[in-house]
Amino acid sequence: MKMWGGRFSGETNQGFLEFSSSIGFDVRLYPYDLACGKAWAEMLLLAGVLTPGEGDCIGKALDRIEEEFRDGSFEFGPADEDIHTAVERRLVEIVGPAGGKLRTGRSRNDQVATDTRLLVMDSCRVLTEGLRALQDALIGSAAETVDVAIPGHTHLQQAQPVLLAHLLLAFVYMLERDVWRVEQARASADVMPLGSAAFAGTGVNVDRELLARELGFSRPCLNSVDGVSDRDFVCDTLYTLSMVMVHLSRLSEQIVLWCSQEFSLLELDDRWATGSSIMPQKKNPDAAELVRGKSGRVIGGLLAVLTVLKGLPLAYNRDLQEDKEPLFDALDTVTGCLHVMERTVDTMSFDRERARELVQGGLITATDLADFLVEKEMGFPQAHEVVGKVVAYCLKEGKGLNDLTVDELQGFSGLLDAEALRWLSVEESLARRGCLGGTSPVEVARQLDSARRMISGPT
Ligand code: ARG
Q1: Residue 160 backbone phi and psi in degrees, to 5
Q2: Are residues 352 and 372 in the same domain?
Q3: 213 lies in a domain?
Q4: Are the CB atoms for 355 and 265 separated by under 8 Å?
Q5: Tell me: the pLDDT tens digits for 3-59?
Q6: CATH code of 60's domain
Q7: Distance between CA 334 and CA 316 in Å, rounded?
Q8: 314 and 391 share a domain?
Q9: 169 plus 301 within the same structural domain
Q10: Which atom of ligand 1 is the closest one to the Cα of 83?
Q11: Each residue of 205-235: pLDDT tens digit?
């Protein structure tokens, strides 16, 4: 029997029933729907709607239903259009008509909003764990590369030498902001709509503050109309997940680049790479590419839900059912991607010899030469101009800055002496960048230390 058949005389079109059904995806709300059912039964008992005997039967039946879902023995009926319908149908089967009393003063509108919020709050814990694990793997990789200098890029042009660990730690700090955003998304979900009923508020005398506490919420929503139609928390979560994917996608891109033969800086573990069906020599970074590609569906999910919401009149509208698939898909996608990236990072290895090859011999310490002239009291614009001429000379002669002799340097400025040559070394360049957040070995060791403390602290 349907939950709403009374006013209809004709049968619902079968195709339409299938079209509108959400049980295929909202079944995962079952633990939360059952928790809400139990808490609501207690409220009905306090309000005198249920007798203690009925309350007891309903509580036990809900436990049994939970067991059935968990062990896979729950049987869906043809009229189970969503998780709420399925649970109520089964409850009445077990308890008899008294089971139907649980619907008193409650609506699927406040139920689904409450269930989804509980799911988000739970999922946030899993997300934080995934982020922390990836941070830990990155920190592990950084710890092994605190003494490896490589060329850093801007515009993908060689810019200045940096420590490889410095680059890896950049991702740790990105992910730290994600941890913070996950906490914000959780806080956004942490408001209880139950008791809003369809939208006008329940007619049953319930203590919604108490109900909120029972369900693990910090507080009930203060406006029932807003309560059933607010999906800001879904958008906040999807935005958070989108930012995680943007970061994972950038990390992936870095990995893909470093794996290329042109860089040859990084080797992926065989377990986290694939081959080509035609080119036998290939080892492809598919894991990183898939993560980069999957960012599209998560960002798409955010746009989908924002678009669903933007024209809705108050209060509940069935459009709101469209929030769940993008949300669930994004949660699953991000959880999966965090795991794959964590394994990829934890098992990859850098070629230290290749790093040395890449960083030595070029023009990468040109900024240091300008800095040297500034140290000798030349203005930076003049120094930039002089070094620009030195660079042009090197390019013409096919030399690196380190190949220049003092005599050659003197041709550009009398200030460029033997000491200037020392400033051109990668080691000196790195060592001079000891400012807070800079790339000197001492400072990067400090960052590594503070990142370690950061990820083990309270979130
Ligand atoms: N499956 C619905 C959803 O996800 C549950 C609420 C249905 N409410 C209704 N009045 N039809 O939004």
Answers
A1: -150, 155
A2: no
A3: no
A4: yes
A5: 888 899 999 999 999 999 999 999 999 999 999 999 999 999 999 999 999 999 999
A6: 1.10.275.10
A7: 29
A8: no
A9: yes
A10: 1
A11: 999 999 999 999 999 999 999 999 999 999 9
DSSP codes, 240-290: HHHHHHHHHHHHHHHHHHHHSTTT--EE--GGG-B--SS-TT--B-HHHHH
CB atoms within 10 A of CB 437: 12
Q: What angle do CA 364, 367, 372 make, to 5 degrees?
A: 125
Q: Check whether residue 40 and residue 179 sit in a common domain.
A: no
Catalytic residue among 260, 276, 349, 456: 276
The pLDDT > 90 percentage for the chain reads 94
Same domain, 265 and 376: no
Is the separation of the CB atoms in 47 and 61 below 8 Å?
A: no
Distance 57 CA to ligand 1 centre (A): 26
Mean pLDDT of the residues in the chain: 97
- Ligand 1 atom nearest residue 323's Cα: 4
Q: Which domain holds residue 269?
A: 109-196+222-357
Read off the CATH number of the domain in which 282 is found: 1.20.200.10
Residue where a domain terminates, one of 69, 104, 139: 104
Tokens of 193: 């709509």
The verdict on residue 128 lying in a domain is yes
The count of domains in the chain is 3
Q: Are 316 and 228 in contact (CB under 8 A)?
A: yes
Protein residues with CB under 6 Å of any ligand 1 atom: 22, 26, 82, 108-109, 112, 316, 318, 320-321, 324
Q: Is 84 a catalytic residue?
A: no
Under the banding of pLDDT at 50, 70 and 90, the label for residue 458 is: low
Contact criterion met (CB below 8 Å) for 23 and 86? yes
As a whole-number percent, the residues of the chain with pLDDT over 70 amount to: 100
276 noted as active-site residue:
yes
What confidence category does residue 272 fall into, taking pLDDT thresholds of 50, 70 and 90? confident
The Cα–Cα gap between 425 and 364 comes to: 10
Given 9, 73, 155, 277, which residue is catalytic? Answer: 155
List the one residue out of 231, 232, 196 whose CA is nearest residue 212. Answer: 196
**In angstroms, what is the span from residue 108 Cα to ligand 1's centroid?**
6
pLDDT at 1 over 80: no
CATH code, domain carrying 382: 1.10.40.30
Counting from 1 in the atom list of ligand 1, the atom nearest the Cα of 320 is 12
Q: What is the pLDDT of residues 157-172, one digit of tens each?
A: 999 999 999 999 999 9
To the question of pTM greater than 0.90 for the whole model, the response is yes
Q: What is the pLDDT confidence band of residue 279, given thresholds at 50, 70 and 90? A: confident
